Amino acid sequence: MPGEPPARELAEQNRWLGDGSRAPIAIWSVPAASVVSAGRAPRVAPCLGLKGVVKMPIWFRMLRTDNKAQLVKLPWTLSRVLSGRRYAVQSGRKTMELRWSKAQMGAAQTAQATEPVHVWLDGRRNLWLFSDCFYWDDDGLDADDIKALVLQRKRRLEQKVRSARSLMRAEEDGRPTRVAVPTELRRAVFARDGGRCVECDGAFDLQYDHILPVAHGGATTLQNLQLLCADCNRRKSDSI
Description:
single chain
């Protein structure tokens, strides 16, 4: 059909529901009034970054959590009855202009469990939904960037929790003495951290660091070890 994207491009940019409704899980910020309904949800490509925006190195990028954002069901109006689109995203008192059908909303909710879904474009700000949380970015990040930054936050939180638990156990059991990291344990830590520094993602001059230092009661275990480059390890030591 005229205007249809190539099959390969369509397969890469869109995913469709398995029930035949063909609703996209990636939602692009097109005003509802500009969408012509033909008995099925529109084919909409996900946002893969803003053209003309210079992308900064990943460590300069900001990702802000919107704890007020939520998916809402709007009251029925004549236009919503005709279009079937009564679902939207609300942040505080502001409701985004884009309206979704029930199928589109369900598909987005399913997709965001494993991959970031682009929800809305507000000027130069992008709103993303991933792992049941909404995030704003101002730097034209793509889905891989969003996922990497969110997972990094979760990893750091888990490290803090492990450190706190190790300290708690050390206070209960006494402080262990420093022992050499066994070869098999080194391999397990290297594989888990992907052979890169968990702080800066560097791969040069890597060291096996105790998250909770041995002097503070940290144990030589997989949970209490991480890969750090020499520079990040020195910065960590200076901050303790």
